[in-house]
Amino acid sequence: MAKERLIGVRDAEPQDASVIAGLISHLAAAMGEASPVTEAYVAKYLASPGSRALLAEVGGKAVGLLTYSVRPDLYHAATTCLIEELVVVETMRGQGVGTALLEELFSRLTALGCAEVSVTTLPDNADAIKFYKDHGLTDEAIFLEKHF
Questions:
Q1: Which 8-state DSSP code applies to residue 134?
Q2: Cβ contact 42:29 at 8 Å
Q3: Are 56 and 101 in contact (CB under 8 A)?
């Protein structure tokens, strides 16, 4: 019988900057890219109003990260949330880490009276699309962007 792993989810703190930078670098590498993220930038992100991060841990080791922003929205006349990054270390995928992070986020957003949560993913990322749809998110809009 497989050993059950208890997944803990907590708010990221400034002292987690190194771990967070590593997880973001892990995400970028999985897409064949490199991220310019540094510990200093993570600290700046965590200090920004509305920017938040959740860490998932198993046995005291970070195995997942969900970053998000909460902001007021005029159309809804309420706060809304944008999931920015969700990363689970490769060895822990399919073991409930992403679900634990998303469920904790949904619980927090409900308590805040948030009207909506949104996420973007690449159109060819079938696993991410299925994951989000399995958790109740639906196709609602097309997200456009311009890089500078």
A1: H
A2: no
A3: yes
> Token pair of 76, please?
């809804």
Name the token pair of 23: 């997880």
Are β-strands 116-119 and 78-88 bridged in parallel, bridged antiparallel, or unpaired?
A: parallel
Q: Is residue 129 classed exposed, middle or buried when 0-12, 13-18 and 19+ CB atoms within 10 A define those classes?
A: middle
| Angle made by CA atoms 121, 127, 128, in degrees to the nearest 5 | 30
Model confidence pLDDT, tens digit, residues 21-48: 999 999 999 889 999 999 999 999 999 9
Q: What is the pLDDT of residues 42-71, one digit of tens each?
A: 999 999 999 999 999 999 999 999 999 999
Domains of the chain, first to last? 7-134 (3.40.630.30)
pTM for the whole structure: 0.92
Alpha-helical runs (H) found in the chain:
17-30, 39-47, 97-112, 126-134
Place of tokens 């998000």: 68
Alpha-carbon gap, residue 118 to 126, rounded angstroms? 17
What percent of the residues of the chain are helix, what percent strand, and what percent coil, each to the nearest 5?
35, 30, 35
